[in-house]
Design goal:
eight-stranded parallel β-barrel; 10 helices; 12 strands
Length: 259
C-alpha cells in the first residue's frame, strides 16, 4: 500500500508567505524561503508553492522565489500560479520545481494539460481545482463548481466532470481545494474529496480546512485522499509535522515517519 503524504502549502503574495480564509482577508505572515527550509527539516513529505495573485494580476510567476525555495529543500516541490504555457512550466522546472500546478490557465485552455504532460510526463503535471459548493443543477449535478482567478470567476463547470477530463488529458495528480473550507481549520470537505477520489484513478490531494491531526486522518480514511495539504496549523505553530504524522500512524494510516 502506498503511504499517505503530508504536504505543506506556501501561498505567496508579493514575495511573502500569506494566508487567507475562503480566499479573502489575505494576510502576510512570513518568509516563504525560511518557512520551506524549516518544514523540510521537520520532515514534510512535499511542498507546494502557489503565487496566489499571478493569475488574477495577469503576470508571470515570481521565478526568483521559486529558485530560492528550491535551493533550500530536497523533497518533491510543485509550483503553481501564472503558468499559461509549456514554456512557463519549463521555466519553473528549470528553477528547481519537480511538478507544475495548473489551475486557471488549464480551464481557459484545457489542451495545456495535454501539452505539458507530453512535454514533461504526467507525473510532473498536477491539476489544481478550486471548488465551490453550489446548488445542484443540470449543468452542475455534483453540486460543486470549478472557479478560477483565485475564486473570483465562476465557470459553470462541474467539479467531477473537470477532474475526469483533467485525468484524460494527462494530469498525474489532482489537488481538490475547497474554497468553503479554505483557512477555516474546521476540517476538510470530506464529501467533495471522496467524490473526486472515487471518480479518478490518479492520486488526489485534499486541500482546505485542515485544523488538527484528526482532520488529516479523516480525509485519508473517509475522504479516500492520497495526501493532505496543510497550511495554517503549521504556519501558526499549532501542531508540528511529526505530531500530525504520529497521530495518523497511531490510527493505522500508512505514513512515512522521519528520524
Amino acid at each position: 500500500m502506498l503511504k499517505k503524504r503530508i504536504i505543506s502549502c506556501l501561498d505567496v503574495r508579493d514575495g511573502k508567505l500569506a494566508k487567507s480564509i475562503k480566499f479573502i482577508d489575505t494576510k502576510d505572515i512570513g518568509d516563504p524561503v525560511e518557512t520551506a527550509r524549516n518544514y523540510y527539516e521537520q520532515g514534510i513529505d512535499e511542498l507546494v508553492f502557489y503565487d496566489i495573485t499571478a493569475s488574477s494580476d495577469k503576470r508571470d510567476i515570481m521565478i526568483d522565489v521559486v529558485s530560492s525555495v528550491a535551493s533550500q529543500i530536497f523533497i518533491p516541490f510543485s509550483v503553481g500560479g501564472g503558468l499559461r504555457t509549456v514554456e512557463d512550466c519549463t521555466r519553473v522546472r528549470l528553477a528547481g520545481a519537480e511538478k507544475v500546478n495548473l489551475n486557471t490557465a488549464a480551464v481557459t485552455n484545457p489542451d495545456l494539460i495535454a501539452q505539458t504532460s507530453r512535454a514533461m510526463g504526467a507525473q510532473a503535471v498536477v491539476l489544481s481545482m478550486d471548488v465551490l459548493a453550489v446548488p445542484v443543477s443540470s449543468s452542475i449535478p455534483s453540486g460543486y463548481e470549478i472557479v478560477t482567478h483565485g475564486g473570483r470567476t465562476h465557470t459553470g463547470i462541474d467539479a467531477i466532470e473537470w477532474a475526469l477530463r483533467g485525468e484524460a488529458l494527462g494530469a498525474g495528480e489532482i489537488v481538490v481545494n475547497s474554497i468553503d473550507a479554505d483557512g477555516t481549520r474546521s476540517g476538510y470537505e470530506i464529501r467533495l474529496t471522496r467524490m473526486i477520489a472515487d471518480s479518478v484513478r490518479i492520486p488526489v490531494i485534499a486541500s482546505g480546512g485542515g485544523g488538527k491531526p484528526e482532520h488529516c486522518y479523516e480525509v485519508f480514511t473517509e475522504g479516500h485522499a492520497d495526501a493532505a495539504l496543510v497550511a495554517s496549523i503549521l504556519h501558526y505553530g499549532e501542531y508540528t509535522i511529526r505530531q500530525i504524522k504520529e497521530y495518523c500512524a497511531s490510527k493505522g494510516v500508512p505514513i512515512r515517519m522521519t528520524a
